[in-house]
Amino acid sequence: MKEEDNISKLFERLEGTFDVETPNTNHENRFLAKLKQQNEQQEDATLENDTAKPVILFTWWKTIAAACVLLLGLGFFIGTNFNTSGDDTQLTFSPEVENSQMYFTSLIEKELEKVKAAEDEDTKELIQDALTQLNRLETDYKALKNQLIEHGEDKRILYAMVANFQLRIELLENVLSQIEEIKLFKNENTII
Q1: pLDDT tens digits along 15-40
Q2: pLDDT for 61 beyond 60
Q3: How far apart are CA 6 and CA 14, in angstroms?
Q4: At how many degrees (to 10) do helices 155-191 and 95-117 cross?
Q5: Could you give the maximum distance between any two Cα atoms of the chain, in Å?
């Protein structure tokens, strides 16, 4: 009952503030015309949306296609730059490291050509032993390169790589000097 009392008090308090005027004539017709106009606008909007739906779907497919292309490109990039299964791992180093590597590699190749050119029966065993040692140093170099890939351009690893190149060059220079000694000794023996 208290609720009914509260509602009754509310109506008593608001009495005289209610809008009880009757609408103007033709009010209903104007209201229906506005509703009809609003319905027509909504129908036009839905027709426009119906024609826009394929564009939305097409945009949706373009987004998926672009994402697939990006993923494939990223996969290709990672596969080519970080493939550690092959012997010649593709990794870009700083320009100084690459220049040093090219310099030492060219020196080693030149010295190796000289050693191979000097091979004969007297020096064959010496050269085979040197090539075995070079292969060991090359294996060590590949291990250092893998460490460099894993740990980044650590100066200690870079110094070890340079030392490896220097050892190979020194080995080849020693072999060349021993070949020269063998040839001199052979020439002295043929003269006597």
Answers
A1: 777 766 777 777 788 888 888 888 88
A2: no
A3: 12
A4: 20
A5: 145
